[in-house]
Amino acid sequence: MKLSILDQSPISSDQTASDALNESLNLAKACDQFGYTRYWIAEHHDLPGLACSAPEVMLSLIGANTKQIRIGCGAVLLPHYKPYKVAEIYNMLSTLFPNRIDLGIGRSPGGSAEATNALSDNFLQKVFKMSDLVDELLHFLKNDFSNEHQFSKITAAPVPENPPIPWMLGTSEKSALLAAQNGLPYAFGLFMSDLDAVSIIDKYRKTFNSNQFSPAPKVLLTVPVVCADTTEKAEEIAWSPLVWQIMQDRGEGQTVPSIQEAKSYELTDQEKEQLKKLKQKMIIGTPYEVKNSLANLQSIYNVDEFMILTITHSPIDRIQSYKLMAEEILSN
């Protein structure tokens, strides 16, 4: 079983955005040593409590301070951008950090309607043209001059010896089919979807294989996890990100609350039920309990890699959570 990291660069109530970004760097450095396969940082725009709006900037810093872990964006929100510029950025990163760059591709806005309008024109129209945008991006990444593409004479320089590996990210059949039709590996955000992930992933594999792409179809699942020495401690730590989601739904929660702040936050009966449902989507427990839960998901979805999203108020708790998982799963 392979483990990777999805980092949303959360800002805790006792942090600045600068603190949060520095903790993202610390997390990547630690997980590089722990043996994680890849580290992806997410792109968000004007969302309270999330610090990273420009993953490519952070990836330059992280790449320079790590040695072997693959690094990438989860995901570049492609409808906001011209594919040529995205290819230039990630070719540049691949030139600086050979054979270590992933390029996750997504279609969501990553922020409010106002932020979307400030970022790009005609976002929804570009979402409808997502297939064309992906085709154009892959053309530039392949640096293929043999076809009749409208940009066949343009190079997304610098051209790295080992190009970035593109992934499709999503939570629906539409994204799964787009990945399969382009021969791309697929990252499914299990924690963000209430759809039938088993059938979606199965359709991805069947469509991929019907097109006879090589190498074989590849799927990873993104799941939220909090791991600690004891179940009780993990439950206590997890209370913070769980309550934070409720706070955000109220239009509150500008930052991740401390455990004490979360415990003292008054919830309505409806919110208590909502919190129970949110908790069911998380894996919370000791290293042994987390390993068993992931093994169960592995048997259900037939995947060999999990991308772990861990949000805690304390950076120490977050790194410790990843460390405990690595010691239990990656060291055995």
TrEMBL record:
Protein name: LLM class flavin-dependent oxidoreductase
EC number(s) reported in the record: 1.-.-.-
Domain Luciferase-like span(s) in chain numbering: 1-299
Gene3D superfamilies according to UniProt: Luciferase-like domain
Family: To bacterial alkanal monooxygenase alpha and beta chains.
GO MF annotation terms: oxidoreductase activity
Keywords: Oxidoreductase
Lineage: Bacteria, Bacillati, Bacillota, Bacilli, Bacillales
Pfam families reported for this sequence: Bac_luciferase
Keyword Coiled coil: no
Entry annotated with the keyword Oxidoreductase: yes
Domain of life: Bacteria
